[in-house]
């Protein structure tokens, strides 16, 4: 697989860092997933893994009264979240940290809820589930989204797009099997509605790309990169029936099963 040129990443982050979210999701879906976490403490200790610029982190702060550790490896995104946290007076509740999801550096068994939207696949779902299991207290919840196939034989451009970004992407049953194999109880799951792709993600992405086309008018390399990035929302517009994002809520059992 060819590694994208450095200029690609420069423009990629110019687009994505300015979006409310870096992947599908919205407040209504977050509230629905939280509603499945029926036995959370009143003020839960929350870990947001792969938080990006923190769109969902700030919504978690609105929807709960808990404290939140938000971790992402991209330092500029964490700086944006820190600025948003300070602006909203949430510094006592939200701690944004530059870190690695695979080695989050948090004490074992210290969280009531781990949240991760569209990020766990970066370190492998089964590996991520094992890490989260260790970080949760017994009875703690993990809420995460993951891309899954919905139909066989996707068009070549759809298959190529996911092969580049998520070659191990599977089906709903594959994630359910991984959840159970990693020692979690599946509480519930639901498919993100189409507005969760557009309202805070693809619609602002297309607007941002349009802004940058003006800025980079006459720059053929930048324009080609913007064309490439614009293919993602267009692919979803045409082929969204072949794939979905599923929101899973799972729980670490209160005690281990006995033989």
Give your account of this protein's structure.
The chain is α/β, with parallel strands linked by helices. The protein contains nine helices and seven strands, in the order H-H-E-H-E-H-E-E-H-E-H-H-E-H-H-E. It has helices at 6-16, 27-35, 55-63, 75-87, 125-135, 156-165, 172-181, 195-215, 220-239, and strands at 45-49, 67-72, 94-98, 111-117, 136-149, 185-191, 243-251. The chain is globular, with a radius of gyration of 19 Å.
Q: Which properties best describe this structure?
A:
7 strands, Rossmann fold, single chain, seven-stranded mixed beta sheet, 259 residues, alpha/beta, 9 helices
Would you summarize the structure shown here?
It is built from 9 helices and 7 strands. It is of the alpha/beta class.
Helix and strand layout, with pairings?
Elements: H1 6-16, H2 27-35, E1 45-49, H3 55-63, E2 67-72, H4 75-87, E3 94-98, E4 111-117, H5 125-135, E5 136-149, H6 156-165, H7 172-181, E6 185-191, H8 195-215, H9 220-239, E7 243-251
Parallel strand pairs: 1-2, 1-4, 2-3, 4-5
Antiparallel strand pairs: 5-7, 6-7
Helix pairs in contact: 1-9, 2-3, 8-9
Helix/strand/pairing class, anyone?
alpha/beta
Question: How would you name the CATH homologous superfamily?
Answer: Vaccinia Virus protein VP39
What fold name goes in the CATH topology slot?
Rossmann fold
Number of helices: 9
What spatial form do the alpha-carbon principal axes imply?
Answer: globular
Question: What characterizes the major β-sheet?
Answer: 7 strands, mixed
Percent in helix: 40-55%
The helix/strand order is: HHEHEHEEHEHHEHHE
Overall mean pLDDT: 94
Distance between the termini: 47 Å
Total of domains: 1
Q: Segments where pLDDT lies below 50 for 5+ residues?
A: none
The total beta strand count reads 7
């Amino acid at each position: 697989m060819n590694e994208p040129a450095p200029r690609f990443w420069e423009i990629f982050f110019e687009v994505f860092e300015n979006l409310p979210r870096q992947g599908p999701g919205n407040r209504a879906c977050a509230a629905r997933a939280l509603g499945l976490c029926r036995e959370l403490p009143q003020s839960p200790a929350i870990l947001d893994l792969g938080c990006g610029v923190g769109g969902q982190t700030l919504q978690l702060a609105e929807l709960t009264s808990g404290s939140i550790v938000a971790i992402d490896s991209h330092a500029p995104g964490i700086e944006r979240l820190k600025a948003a946290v300070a602006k909203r007076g949430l510094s006592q509740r939200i701690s944004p940290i530059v870190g690695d999801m695979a080695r989050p550096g948090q004490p074992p068994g210290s969280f009531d809820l781990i949240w991760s939207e569209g990020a766990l696949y970066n370190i492998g779902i089964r590996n991520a589930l094992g890490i989260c299991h260790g970080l949760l207290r017994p009875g703690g919840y993990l809420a995460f989204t993951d891309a899954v196939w919905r139909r066989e034989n996707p068009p070549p451009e759809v298959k190529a797009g996911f092969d580049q970004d998520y070659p191990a992407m599977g089906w709903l049953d594959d994630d359910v099997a991984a959840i159970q194999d990693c020692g979690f109880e599946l509480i519930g799951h639901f498919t993100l509605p189409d507005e969760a792709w557009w309202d805070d993600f693809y619609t602002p992405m297309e607007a941002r790309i349009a802004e940058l086309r003006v800025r980079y008018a006459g720059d053929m390399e930048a324009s080609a990169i913007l064309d490439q990035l614009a293919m993602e929302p267009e692919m979803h517009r045409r082929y969204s029936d072949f794939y979905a994002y599923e929101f899973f809520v799972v729980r670490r059992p209160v005690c281990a099963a006995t033989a």
